[in-house]
Design a protein that fits this description.
With 172 residues, the protein is mostly helical. It is 80% helix and 0% strand. It folds into 2 domains: 85 residues, CDP-alcohol phosphotransferase transmembrane (TM) domain (Four Helix Bundle (Hemerythrin (Met), subunit A), Up-down Bundle); 87 residues, no CATH class. It is a multi-pass membrane protein. It catalyses: a CDP-1,2-diacyl-sn-glycerol + sn-glycerol 3-phosphate = a 1,2-diacyl-sn-glycero-3-phospho-(1'-sn-glycero-3'-phosphate) + CMP + H(+).
């Protein structure tokens, strides 16, 4: 197993640790959770960079990296709903978009089509990570960044579907 895939596995392993810490109620649990989330988010950048730079792209990585990202972000937002740090409707929008785009990618893959991440999808990811970090660290205006993350989530979902609507026309 190469380094990029090991980083992806590390990110997945950090998810339950993040959840336990954020829900533990221990002193500074939000700060510790922010640190764990930051480390996990950095592995997201590093695994992709390493895989591309050193030609270590694998089928395992193509499947597990986006799954690890979705697990991390979903776990963060769901636990933050439980702690009344974010609104449930916003998290429902975010998770629904992830399901929709994942299903779109699966349908495309069944026809041999690969849907690469778009600039809007990347902007969505960055805004979500930033919103989560700002909320965990209780940084002012985090609600504005969360609103931007929701808007980018909606638009990037629309963009993926609009750019790939031909996939639906070819369905039997």
């Amino acid at each position: 197993m190469n380094l990029a895939n090991k980083l992806t596995i590390l990110r997945i392993l950090l998810v339950p640790i993040f959840v336990v810490v954020i829900l533990s109620g221990i002193k500074n649990s939000l700060l510790i959770s922010a640190l764990i989330f930051a480390i996990a988010s950095i592995t997201d950048f590093l695994d992709g960079y390493i895989a591309r730079k050193y030609n270590l792209v694998t089928n395992f990585g193509k499947f597990m990296d986006p799954l690890a990202d979705k697990l991390l972000v979903a776990a963060a937002f769901i636990t933050m709903v439980d702690l009344n740090l974010v609104s449930s409707w916003a998290v429902i929008v975010i998770i629904s978009r992830e399901f929709a785009v994942s299903i779109l990618r699966a349908i495309a893959a069944s026809s041999g089509i690969v849907i690469a991440a778009s600039k809007w999808g990347k902007a969505k990811t960055v805004s979500q990570i930033l919103a989560i970090m700002m909320i965990l660290l209780n940084i002012p205006f985090s609600n504005i960044v969360m609103g931007i993350a929701v808007l980018l989530t909606i638009y990037s979902g629309y963009d993926y579907i609009n750019l790939n609507k031909s996939i639906f026309k070819n369905m039997d």
